[in-house]
Amino acid sequence: MHGGQHGHGMDGTGHDEVNMPGLRGENASPEESAELGVMFRNFESFTREVTNLPDGIRTVTRSSDPKVMANLVSHVTGMIGRVENLDDPKIFIQSPTLDIFFQRGDKITSEIEVTDEGIVVVQTSTDPEVVTALQVHAAEVSDMAARGMLAVHEKMMQQGG
Whole-angstrom Cα distance, residue 69 to residue 67? Predict the structure, then answer.
C-alpha cells in the first residue's frame, strides 16, 4: 500500500473511476472502451441469468436503463465479432480467460438474439477447453454485473495483477 491506496496506479494515482483507463486496450477503439465504462458505471441496472450447457452456455442479460442496454448489445455483438475474427482488443483489465477465445474463436458457434427478455447469447463448442472457458467467463461476467469494478479488482489481485 502506498499513500493509503491499493497500488493499482503505477504512478501512485490509484483508481480513476471517472476515466477508467483500465478499460482501454492496445487494440480497442475509444468507442469500445466508452461502452465498457457505461456498463461498469451502471452495473446496478443489470440482471443476468446463465445456464451452463454440456457444450457451452446460454446467457440472458438485460439492463433496466435503455442507454445501458444499447451499450450492452453493442458490446456483446462487437466482442463476439472480434472472437470470430480472432481479433483480441487487449483491454488492460481483461480476464486471462478470454485468451483462448481469441486463439480458438473459430471453434465457437455463437447465436445472439435481442428479445423482450434481454440479449440472449448461446455459445457452444466441441472443444472441451473452450467450453470450460465459456462457462468460467460467463461466471466472471455475472460477477461483474453484480458487483462492478470491485469484481475486476478482486480478480486482478488474485492473479497478482
Answer: 5
Distance CA(12)–CA(157), nearest Å, equals 17
Q: In the chain, which residue ranges form alpha helices assigned H by DSSP?
A: 30-41, 66-84, 99-104, 128-147, 149-158
**CA atoms of 89 and 69, how far apart (whole Å):** 21
Of 13, 6, 2, residue with least CA distance to 149: 6
DSSP single-letter state for residue 6: -
Measured CA angle at 36 (ends 120, 71), to 5 deg: 50
CB 122 within 8 A of CB 58: yes
pTM strictly above 0.70:
yes
Q: How many other C-beta atoms can be found within 10 angstroms of the C-beta atom of residue 57?
A: 21
Among 102, 110, 100, smallest CA distance to 77 is for 110
**Average pLDDT per consecutive 10 residues, the chain (161 residues; last block may be shorter):** 38 48 84 91 96 98 96 96 95 88 96 95 98 97 92 79 54
3-state secondary structure of 113: strand
CA–CA separation, 159 and 99 (whole Å):
15
Residue 50 half-sphere exposure, CB side, CA atoms within 13 Å?
A: 17
d(CA 32, CA 50) in angstroms, rounded, equals 24
